[in-house]
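Project standup — Tuesday

K.O.: blocked on the structure for the chain from last sprint. Re-posting the sequence here as requested.
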Amino acid sequence: MKFRCDKAELLTAVSNVSRAVSGRSAMPVLEGIQIKAYDGMLTLTGYDIELGITTSLPAQISEEGAAVIGAKLFGDMLRRLECEEVLFETDEKLLTVIRGGGAEYTVLGMDPADYPELPELKDNDSLVLPQAALRSMIEQTQFAIAQNDAKPVHMGSLFDVEEDSVTLVSVDGYRMAVRREPAKTGLETRFVVPGKTLAEIARLLDPDDGSDAQVELRVSRQYMRTTIGEYSLITRLLDGEFLDYQTAIPKGQTTEVIVSTRELMNAVDRVSLLISDRLRSPMKIRFEPEQIHISCTTALGRVVDDVPCALTGKELEMGFNNRYVLDALRAADCDTLKLQISGPLSPMKVVPPEGDSFLFLVLPVRLKNE
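H.V.: unblocked you, prediction finished:
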C-alpha cells in the first residue's frame, strides 16, 4: 500500500476514529487504526468491539491495500510532522514508512486480516432527526447517565421513540434527566445507547451546521449506526430493563417556584466554594414567598445566599447535593425555570416555565434535624 494525502485532513480523521480505539486490549490489533486505500479513497476505522468509528478521505493512491497502525503512535507522529502532505508506504511484511517534510518514521504495522469486521445491521429502523435537536438532547441529558455498572443499562440513555416525538432519558439513582423533542418518526420503539457513544455523537455534530442539517440513526435489535457527514459510528446497544421513568416522576406539587436560571445557578456556585469531596455537606435550601435562601456549613466555614423568586403554595426547607443541583441548572436552556416540589423529602422537578421540552429530577438529601 502506498499513498499521499493532506496531513491536516489525515490527522483530523485519525484523531476522531482513535476515540473508538482500545487503550489497552487483549487483542493488540484493536489498539490500532485500520487503514484501507482503494479507488482513490482512504477509509480509516477505530473499533473496540463496543463502538466503531469509520471515515473516508481522498488520497493519491499509488498502490492499493490495507494495514493496521497503532493509533496513539500514528497520531503522535502526524502531529510532529512539519509538512502539508504525508507519504505513507507499507510493504508485504507490514514494514511501514511515514514521511513528511524532512522527517521519516519506520514502524511495524499489524496484519489487517486480524482486524475484526464491523457488525452488519439487519432488519433495522431508520430515525432521522435535526442535528441541532439531537445535539441538544444529548447535552441536556448526559449529566445524569450512571457512571458505574451497578445496573449496566443505566450507563446509557433511553430513546423512547413514538410516532410524533422522541424522548431521551438518563438516570443514575440520584437524579433523572428527560428531554423530549417533537418529531414525525412513524416509529414506536425503545432502545438504550451507551453514554460513551452519545458523547462521541454529540462531539461530531457540528453546532454551526444549522437547524436544517439532519442525522440518521439506523437501529436494529443489537446495534445502532449513526451517519454524520463523512463519519459513521456503530455501537452495541445496552440490554436490560430501563427504569420506568414516567412512573418515577412525581405527580402534582404543593410548592411551585419561578426563578431566574442564571441567578440561582450563580448562587449555588458561590455556596459550593465551601464544599469538596473531602468536606461534604448538604446544601440547605429554604423556599420562601419572595426568595430562595441557600446556606451551607462545613469545616471551612459557613455561607449564605439569597435569590429572588415567586413562590406559589407552601414554604419548605430541603437539603441537596450541590453538584446535582448545579448539573441540572447548567443543562437548562431557558432564562427562567419552574421548580416543583411535593414535600421536603420528595424529588424536586426542574422544568421550563412553559411546555415539556425537558424535566430534571433531583433527589433531596435528608437534613440532620429531620
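K.O.: great, moving the ticket to review. Helices lie at 7-17, 71-80, 131-141, 195-204, 245-248, 261-271, 322-331. The first helix runs from residue 7 to 17.
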